[in-house]
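sry for the spam today, last one i promise. C-alpha cells for design, 269 residues
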C-alpha cells in the first residue's frame, strides 16, 4: 500500500508538473512539498500549518484531502499534546509563559470581572489582534507626550537666548553703527572688451571672413551701401571681397581701405 508521500508524488507526476511549479501555484515552499513527497512531516512548524499545507497540496493534486489527513493522523502526528502554560505571579500581575501555539489564545480576564464582561473582553481582544500580526506595545500616555513637548520647547528657547546673548557680547558695535562708520564700496568690475573688426560697405560687395588660427569662417554674405558687419578678432583674419574698392574696415575706431580694388583676399593681423 502506498504511503502519503508516494501518493502525492505519483499525483504530481501524473499532472506533469515539477515541484517548483507546484510551489509557485500553491504558494507553499518547495522544500515543504519535497518533504511531503518523501513522507517526512517534520517542518518545524505549528501542527495547524502542517495540516493546512498538506490539505492544500492534496486538493491541488486532485486527491481526497480528508483521506490524506486521516492517514496523516493515523501516523500519530495529527494530535498535538497541549502544553500547560507555566504561570508566575508578580504582585497583582499574572504573567503567562506559553508555547508558540498557545500565544494565539485571548488575554485572560481578571477573576473579579463578571462573566458578561469577560466574554466582551475576549471578543474585543480578538478583534483588536486580528487586524495585525504585530505585538501590542505599551500605550504612550498623552500627558507624557505633552510634557516631552513642553521640555523640548523650553530647551530650544534656552539655546536661542544663549545664542543671542553670545552674539551681543562678541559684537558690541551694532550692525547699523558699523555700516555707517565703514560703508562698503563696491569695486567696479571692468569687462575686457573683445577686439573686433567692423566691415563697412561703400557699395554692394560680397565678403567672406575666416579666422587664421583655426580656419573658422566668421562671416560670409553680401553687404549693400552703408551696411556694416562686426566680427570678433582673435588673431589674424583673412578677408575676401568681390570688389575691394567697395569695402573698408574699422579697427579700434580707425578706418582702413582694402589693399586691392577687385576680387582678392587680404590678411589682417
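last one done:
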Amino acid at each position: 500500500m502506498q504511503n502519503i508521500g508516494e501518493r502525492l508524488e505519483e499525483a504530481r507526476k501524473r499532472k506533469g508538473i515539477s515541484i517548483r511549479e507546484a510551489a509557485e501555484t500553491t504558494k507553499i515552499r518547495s522544500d515543504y512539498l519535497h518533504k511531503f513527497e518523501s513522507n517526512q512531516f517534520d517542518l518545524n512548524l505549528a501542527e495547524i500549518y502542517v495540516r493546512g499545507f498538506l490539505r492544500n497540496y492534496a486538493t491541488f493534486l486532485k486527491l481526497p484531502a480528508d483521506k490524506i489527513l486521516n492517514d496523516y493522523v493515523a501516523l500519530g502526528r495529527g494530535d498535538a499534546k497541549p502544553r500547560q502554560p507555566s504561570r508566575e505571579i508578580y504582585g497583582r500581575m499574572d504573567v503567562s509563559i506559553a508555547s508558540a501555539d498557545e500565544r494565539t489564545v485571548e488575554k485572560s480576564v481578571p477573576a473579579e470581572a463578571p462573566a458578561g464582561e469577560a466574554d466582551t473582553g475576549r471578543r474585543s481582544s480578538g478583534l483588536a489582534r486580528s487586524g495585525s500580526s504585530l505585538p501590542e506595545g505599551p500605550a504612550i500616555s498623552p500627558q507624557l507626550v505633552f510634557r516631552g513637548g513642553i521640555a523640548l520647547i523650553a530647551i530650544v528657547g534656552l539655546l536661542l537666548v544663549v545664542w543671542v546673548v553670545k552674539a551681543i557680547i562678541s559684537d558690541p558695535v551694532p550692525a547699523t553703527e558699523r555700516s555707517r562708520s565703514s560703508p562698503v564700496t563696491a569695486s567696479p568690475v571692468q569687462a575686457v572688451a573683445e577686439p573686433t573688426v567692423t566691415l563697412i560697405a561703400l557699395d554692394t560687395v560680397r565678403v567672406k571672413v575666416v579666422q587664421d588660427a583655426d580656419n573658422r569662417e566668421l562671416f560670409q554674405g553680401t553687404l549693400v551701401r552703408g551696411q556694416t558687419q562686426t566680427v570678433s578678432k582673435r588673431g589674424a583674419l583673412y578677408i575676401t571681397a568681390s570688389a575691394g574698392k567697395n569695402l573698408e574696415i574699422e579697427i579700434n575706431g580707425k578706418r582702413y581701405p582694402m589693399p586691392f580694388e577687385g576680387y582678392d583676399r587680404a590678411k589682417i593681423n
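The chain has eight helices and ten strands. ok im logging off now
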